[in-house]
Amino acid sequence: MLKNKLILLGITGGIAAYKSAELARLLIKEGASVQVVMTKSAEAFITPLTMKTITGRPVFSSFFNPDEPGHFSATVHIDLAREPHIAVIAPATANILGKMAAGIADDLLSTVLMAVNTAECPIILAPSMNTSMLHNPAVRNNIAVLRGRGYIVADPQEGFLACGEVGEGRMIEPSGLLEIIKKKIRKAGDFSGLTVLITAGPTREALDPVRFLSNHSSGRMGYALARAAQERGAHVILVSGPTALETPPGVDFYPVVSAQDMYEVVMDKLSAADIVIKSAAVADYRPEKTSAQKIKKGGGEMTLKLVRNPDILKEIGKNKRNIFVVGFAAETENVLDNGKKKIVDKNLDMIVANDLTQEGAGFCAETNIVHLLYRDGREEKVPLMSKYELSHLILDRIREIKHS
Ligand code: CTP
Predict the structure, then answer these.
(1) Band of the pLDDT at 361, cuts 50, 70, 90?
(2) Longest alpha-carbon distance in the chain
(3) CATH code that applies to domain 195-284+302-402
(4) Do the beta carbons of residue 123 and residue 113 sit within 8 Å?
(5) Architecture in CATH of 6-187
(6) Residues forming the active site
(7) Closest ligand 1 atom to Cα of 326
């Protein structure tokens, strides 16, 4: 299944580097070509000769070509980054995770990883380290940052560690890593030919030139969905309220501010869409009047009159034809009942219901805990997972229903 696929295998300096030889062997058995890039410290754990013999390719660890000693290539990092279909860093030490999270490129491997276009070549990280290091707040934060950017993290496992301790930190076994790689490659392109319209973030409803009504939505869920759909070959239209996030590469991006703006852009783009996913937290109300000048305070109380915004999702449901429509339900009570009611009210195919009161769920978290509710009455409880992983699960379910 990996025939004609080129895998970049990055090896950093940890004892689990010996497992990379086994991983390379498994990949080659599946028909893949494997290009190894090692750090200098990795060479202390496993020799370039071993990796070269297994892969049949020169092994790079510096900007000098290993097969032409003394021949320096200033663009070797670009050449190595351009061709692979997928990159796997195994083992990934605390050091490489920190460098990737911070954007440091001070050797060949970190520079290659900086040059990889992750929209075309997903990167899988297989951390391996002592338990205390793994639980260090800096490492945990770096892993969360990298997950948030769409890197796939193959969680380390519990077991006997090289330092003599027993605990979490063992690199995932090569066979497990191979499954993750195969799954990733299988999914690449399964949304090609489809247009997915995604809304994300909050809306802002202006009171005057300096004030607005809004909510805590960070946009993370919608941006993760956009990234995942783009990686799977979809044409993605992302309509987003104001967020602090970077636009995922390769998507058509339409920034908006108010619910009315979002409504207009979504309705304009709707005819192009095969799938709509409405993860935006749209303000249901806006101030009746927006003052052209800053509102000055008076002596007493102030009353604001609010009027209804259009319900964008409901409008989509009314005109949905063959479009597969997914809504979100952000709830603080009666999550499932409210979610089910919204499926009917808004004529949806599926709703992602989340309980904002649960830790690890909701607006600003990197993770989410949700129930997926379907039009036919089925419900699926989804455990805590990153918003990026959840995005892929949502896309898996959409594909399954569309093909059933
Ligand atoms: N939505 C929308 N337009 C609105 C309000 C909500 O398109 N004016 C969409 C959201 O993007 C989400 C879904 O409707 O996909 C449900 O949003 P939510 O805020 O949970 O529910 P509401 O329908 O606004 O109902 P309520 O606030 O009463 O729970």
Answers:
(1) confident
(2) 82
(3) 3.40.50.10300
(4) yes
(5) 3-Layer(aba) Sandwich (3.40)
(6) 163
(7) 15
